Structures are given as C-alpha cells and as structure tokens.
Amino acid sequence: MVVLSRKVNHGMLPRSEEDRRVLSVYAAQLRAVASELEEEACDIILLFMEITSALDRMERDGGSEPEAVEAVRSALNTITERLQMFDGSAQRLGHIADSAERMKTLDSDHSELATLASSYSCPVEHEVHGQICNEAGGAADK
Predict the structure, then answer these.
(1) What is the DSSP string of 61-103?
(2) How many CA atoms lie within 13 A of 59 on its CB side?
(3) Which of 59, 75, 128, 131 is least surrounded by CB atoms within 10 angstroms?
C-alpha cells in the first residue's frame, strides 16, 4: 500500500466545501478505476493461463491441430483487445492528476468541479462525478 507523504497530504488539504467535493470525486474515480482494472486483470491472467495450457498440450502431444492453433490465436487477440482498456484507465487517472495539479494554485473563484467534469472523456467518469456531487447535495457542474 502506498502512503502519501505529509508534504503531499498538506498540498491537498481542502480549503472549501468545493475542495472537499473535488477530493471525494477523486476518491470515487480512483475506486472505480481500481475496481475495473482488478476485474480486467484477473480475466487477462486467466486467458494467459489458458493459452499456456494449450501450448503445453500441443508440445506434449507433438503437434498442433488447426483448431488448437486458432484457439490460441483467438485468445491472444482477445488479450490484445482487453489490454486496450488500460489506455482508457490511464487517461482517467491523468484527468485526476491534472486536476490535483490545478488544485495547488486555485483561488476561491475557480470551480475545479466544473473544470474536472469538462475534462472527462469516458461516460463512467461523468456517472461517478454526478453520483458523488448528488450525494453531497450539490450540482455535478459546480
């Protein structure tokens, strides 16, 4: 588990109710990304295990049936497609990192919640943002 240093924590102390909401949105977005990555990573690992088992069987049996080779190729294609999900997760994490950087120098006239929401490129980011803001009793774009 990563522990944030006092210096990092100090830079993220909420100065207003909006700052508290922004930090709540960060936490919710990170939980959503972590949950998706965990599930996806487990599925990908299972696919790798299936592929290596199939290759081991082919080696043991001294040959490769066309169906077995096609199954391995298909599984590798599936892994390649599933790994693309990690690009989207990295982009989502980048939105949080960019917002955290802006938070260091914001004044009270700036709405980081609105800026953060405008940076989203994935529907799930908007959903999470809206849920947290609605729970906090505020508008999602404030």
Answers:
(1) HTS--HHHHHHHHHHHHHHHHHHTHHHHHHHHHHHHHHHHHHH
(2) 6
(3) 59
List all residues 6 or more positions away from 60 whose beta carbon is below 8 Å from its beta carbon: none
The answer to whether 119 and 98 are in contact (CB under 8 A) is yes
Write down the pTM of the prediction.
0.69
Q: What is the mean pLDDT of the chain?
A: 83
Which residues, in sequence order, are CB contacts of 96 under 8 Å at separation 6+? Answer: 26, 29, 30
Q: Which amino acid is at 107?
A: D
Residue 99 near residue 115 (C-beta atoms within 8 A)? yes
Q: For 26-36, what is each residue's pLDDT tens digit? A: 999 999 999 98
Q: With contact defined as beta carbons under 8 Å apart, do 129 and 66 qualify?
A: no
